[in-house]
Amino acid sequence: MKKLDMIYEGKAKKVFRTDDPKQYIVSYKDDATAFNGLKKGSIADKGIVNNKMSAILFKMLEEKGIPTHMIALLNDRESLVKAVQILPLEVIVRNVAAGSMSKRLGIEEGTILPQIVLEFSYKNDELGDPLINDDHALAMGLATREQISRVKAYTFKINEFLKEFFLDKGLKLIDFKIEFGLYDGEVILADEISPDTCRLWDVNTNEKMDKDRFRRDLGKVEETYQEVLARVTKCAE
Ligand code: UDP
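That is the input. Now the predicted structure with uridine-5'-diphosphate docked in place:
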């Protein structure tokens, strides 16, 4: 597999073409941003944590029957993935109120939601990834009705598998964001699943074990990313 030119550089990752047009190499960076790019910084070795953690989680989800873009972990910071066309939707799942939902709706952070909340955001940095519903997505041509129902069905299953997986590692899955792509016309899970994209709280102490440590200047940022990776890597006892 030959790594060719970079085709995309985002806030946390670079994407390279390979000599196979159906495969890309994703390279994870240590750069961290929050509040729509207003807060900028770096978290040492975050790229390594997010790359390895995503590979482990995508593999687990594949084994449970969820199609993902993951092909292989290549090295500390790089993975080989299927070349998908990303649907311009951020899919957010909430099990417990936190972050923007708490702020927007005045629900105290940590309130357990009596039912799962699934949100869509329109992936558009200039607009600040605004919250939209299914009808907006359809009217704007972001996805078809079939693709949206596929996305939702996968997302509910992914939430169940991730919740169980993290609980086994002593982590509560508060909320998370995922993205899907099209590969051979089929919807598959893409992007990453990491402490950058999930809220994870320690089951015993409720300590925040995710990017909120960076967003809110809570300290022990690097240590927490390493701790999450160590827990995710550890085999079930
Ligand atoms: N999230 C993300 N990327 C985004 C927005 C949100 O990965 O651009 C994740 C975030 O880490 C959290 C969940 O989605 O796990 C819900 O985020 P929220 O809408 O509460 O926004 P925030 O408070 O992070 O701005």
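The pocket of uridine-5'-diphosphate is lined by residues 90, 92, 98-101, 129, 175-177, 196-199, 211 (CB under 6 Å).
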